[in-house]
Design goal:
The protein contains 23 helices and 20 strands. By secondary structure, the protein is an alpha/beta fold. The protein folds into 4 domains: about 200 residues, 3-Layer(aba) Sandwich (Rossmann fold), CATH 3.40.50.300; about 60 residues; about 230 residues, 3-Layer(aba) Sandwich (Rossmann fold); about 80 residues. It has a 6-stranded mixed β-sheet with strand order 5-6-7-3-8-9, sandwiched between helices. The protein has a 6-stranded mixed β-sheet with strand order 14-17-18-12-19-20, with helices on both faces. The chain has a 3-stranded antiparallel β-sheet with strand order 2-1-4, with helices on one face. It starts with a strand and ends with a helix.
């Protein structure tokens, strides 16, 4: 049986001012399809999703949706009604004993939050951090009954574990259709069976995930012989990376496997490791950072304890760990911004560090982009005789000749982050510490950044939730497991996920996966019974007041009629509460007996 068609766009065009974001686009979505959307920031990806959701009108063409199709939308901005609690957003009007027995709801809450505690559910949405808000709105969609989910950057604020869980959950729901915009290329590879590239007003379709998309673009370029210059070079860099991790990635493309393997086999490694190491040793000597039995605290909170770690010249190390495990705190200790509470940290005498933090540096909004970079230096030495001018480095990081004259105050968040990184590199550091460097970057900018880091001959330490980026630019990995320890990960991020899964394999987690225990459900039911009894008291008081009002309003027919209507409504509400109370107390008695 052919899959059910859910949604179609027919010759859809959409422009803002005189710029056409979509120009005569026709496409369709069928049941069970998983589609990743890529393209430059500002190129029309989010607009495409808003049009499909019916949130943005089209200039011409039409959007046709099957009548019974339900669509859930995750926007980049997470909002909820004023005063809403987490339980209101995620669970709506579901009674506690009702959702507590729902395996899908339990799985979602456990996967995104590690469980469902009253502390979480009773918090106001407005009080949550950005990452918590993202998880709450994701949970709302995943527990809902939708045919099609339109997800705009769902992996923002999710750690490596959260991204891996979300990918597995989506893949486990065979009939759910998903269209996702994300710069997380590992996630795209895991969940997508198609890639849509939004470029120059068109939407180009590719079979397979992100790796298949890269290979398909290279194959198209080879066959047509029109792809050249910088764009072709960056694609070839991606091919070189895919050559290193071939088995899992190259099996996905739907076009000729032989052609893909030929493309990959002919590409050299993305960087010459030994050449970079020799250059780094000349600049750095033998010592970069040596951590000797150090314990480190974030304020009054002990975070890392008894750490021994050595970072050498030319090391390219990815650091993974749960939020709050101490990744940024470790960086600050290496940079001597905080002192260890025990042990010591030795820094090499020739080390010149640069730190890209998660927080954007404040710059004069009147400066031009190129001016902001040249205030650091006019040129930078990359090693091996390679030199870039300030303008050339700007261009390598996505600021073309025109945008280099853009005022800093007019830049987007992603552009400001690119500018911050450009200024750091212009200071010729030999050690780079990057804390979530990929935030707000589109795929094309990420590829350019990876290409630039391939040429960096110093030591590179990276904190990121972007698994593809970590595996692309780093050669070694260490993990902070949330118990104060730091551990080498010879098996990479996959080993980290296995270690975390093992450490969380407690009695509580087993109960969350297999079903709520009787004791836990009884606790939820008791809480609901108490809540219903309070509601009964309030409605009884309301009914008594309305009965009294009828006596007082005997000679005012209009007000008397209104009071009688309100009394009917109040009694109906009392009957409903009585019924819910009876169901809850009956279930509670069954559990306790």
């Amino acid at each position: 049986m052919a899959p059910r068609n859910l949604l179609n766009l027919e010759s859809v065009s959409k422009a803002f001012d005189i710029r056409a974001l979509l120009d005569g686009v026709s496409l369709g979505v069928n049941e069970g399809e998983r589609i990743g959307v890529v393209g430059r920031n500002g190129g029309g990806k989010s607009t495409l999703l808003k049009i499909m959701a019916g949130l943005e009108p089209v200039d011409s063409g039409r959007v046709a949706k099957a009548g019974d199709v339900s669509i859930g939308v995750l926007n980049q901005v997470d909002t909820a009604a004023p005063g809403a609690l987490v339980r209101d957003v995620v669970l709506g009007n579901k009674a506690e004993h009702e959702w507590a027995r729902d395996s899908q709801i339990r799985e979602v809450l456990t996967g995104l939050f590690g469980g469902f505690t009253d502390d979480l559910l009773d918090r106001e949405f407005a009080s949550l951090s950005g990452g918590e808000r993202r998880r709450v709105n994701l949970a709302k969609l995943l527990v809902g009954e939708y045919d099609l989910l339109l997800l705009d950057e769902p992996t923002n604020h999710l750690d490596v574990e959260g991204v891996a869980w979300l990918a597995g959950h989506i893949k486990s729901r065979a009939n759910l259709s998903v269209i996702v915009i994300t710069h997380d290329r590992w996630f795209l590879d895991e969940v997508s069976d198609q890639i849509w590239e939004v470029v120059d007003g068109s939407v180009l379709a590719y079979e397979g995930g992100y790796s298949a998309y890269v290979l398909s673009k290279a194959e198209r370029a080879r066959q047509s012989t029109v792809e050249a210059g910088k764009r072709a070079m960056l694609i070839r860099k991606e091919l070189a990376w895919l050559r290193r991790g071939a088995p899992a990635r190259t099996a996905k493309p739907k076009f000729r496997i032989e052609a893909a393997n030929t493309l990959i086999a002919n590409e050299p490694p993305p960087r010459n490791a030994s050449e970079l190491l020799n250059f780094a040793a000349n600049r750095l000597g033998n010592t970069v950072f040596e951590v000797h039995q150090a314990s480190i605290s974030a304020g009054d909170k002990p975070t890392l304890k008894d750490i021994y770690w050595n970072v050498g010249p030319g090391d390219r190390i990815g650091i993974v760990g749960v939020n709050g495990a101490g990744k940024t705190t470790l960086f600050k200790a290496l940079l001597q911004q905080i002192k260890p509470t025990a042990g010591k940290i030795v820094t090499g005498v020739t080390v010149k560090s640069a730190f890209l933090s998660q927080h954007l540096e404040e710059l004069d909004p009147k400066w031009r982009v190129l001016e902001a970079v040249e205030k650091v230096a006019n040129s930078v030495q990359l090693g091996n005789g390679k030199e870039l001018s300030a303008s050339q480095l700007c261009e390598r990081l996505g600021f073309d000749a025109d945008s280099q004259w853009t005022p800093v105050g007019d830049l987007s968040g992603g552009e400001r982050r690119r500018l911050q990184l450009t200024r750091l590199l212009m200071d010729s550091p030999n050690v780079l510490l990057l804390d979530e460097p990929t935030n707000d970057f589109d795929v094309e900018t990420l590829t350019a950044l990876e290409d630039l880091l391939d040429s960096f001959g110093g030591t590179l330490l990276v904190i990121s939730h972007d698994r593809y980026f970590l595996e692309r630019v780093c050669d070694r990995f260490v993990g902070l497991l949330g118990n104060g320890s730091l551990r080498d990960l010879p098996g990479g991020i996959e080993e980290y996920l296995k270690l975390r899964s093992a450490s969380l394999n407690s009695v509580e987690v087993k109960e969350a996966k297999s079903g709520i225990s009787n004791a836990a459900e009884a606790r939820l039911l008791k809480k609901e019974v108490a809540k219903l009894e309070k509601q009964m008291e309030r409605v009884d008081s309301e009914i008594a007041a309305l009965i009294k009002a009828q006596d007082d309003l005997a000679f005012d027919h209009d007000k008397l009629a209104k009071a009688m209507e309100e009394l009917v409504v109040a009694k109906a509400r009392k009957d409903q509460i009585d019924e819910e109370w009876l169901i809850a107390t009956t279930k509670l008695e069954e559990l306790e007996n």
